[in-house]
Amino acid sequence: MITVGHPVAFAVGILGNILSFLVILAPVPTFYRVYAKKSTESFQSVPYVVALLSATLWLYYALLSTDLLLLSINTVACVAESVYLAVYLAYAPGPAKAFTLKLLFCRPSVVLLIALTNKQRQVMRTKSVEFMPFWLSFFLTVSAVVWFFYGLLIKDFFVAMPNVLGLLFGLAQMVLFFVYRNRNPKKNGAVSEMQQAAVQADDEKERRSHANADVRTVVVDIMPPPPAMMVMMTAAHQTPAVEVV
User: Buried b vs exposed e over 118-137: b needs ≥16 C-beta within 10 Å?
Assistant: First the structure.
């Protein structure tokens, strides 16, 4: 059986760390642009909130499993994503700041559900990939593949299975990039200032919709609670407590 200390698993883990580090660095040009323009434009905070929550959970898991590879890269990720969000909050308009802070305190699974579809819908609506960097999607996809095989090698399916989602949505983003890359409004002037204003208005409506939505039923959890806890939770929502005399 291959363990974490096995040379093959360690080599794959090192490769995963390198690729994850490239994923972490991918938003640097985006936030340099935000800093230079003193504006977040149409960039959204959702991917970075999700990345911070994910890195925090993986950091806790790494501490419990004493996995140095997971511990090191997720420590770096927590610091980097915190810096990105600090820059975003510094230059974002008021409603975007409020929406970002609400996401930070929202249930992580709901944030994940929003993040998996939000960026793709924006690209399809605007017919533009200006605000969806290719290299972020590329390194996210490759990193998901490597971490998936790392989890398989060490027989840790809690590491392997979440990266299946990462792979699927990374591929989806890359497909969208190649479909819409030649329709970039920055290059051909296809989108006017009025259209950009309309897109921002739509984004604001979505933020308000997500902030006011009452999520009652469908919640996607990567690590669901134990069956016994699920029964207790279901009973608590369906039947009143009965006092036994």
Answer: bbeebbeebebbbbbbeebb
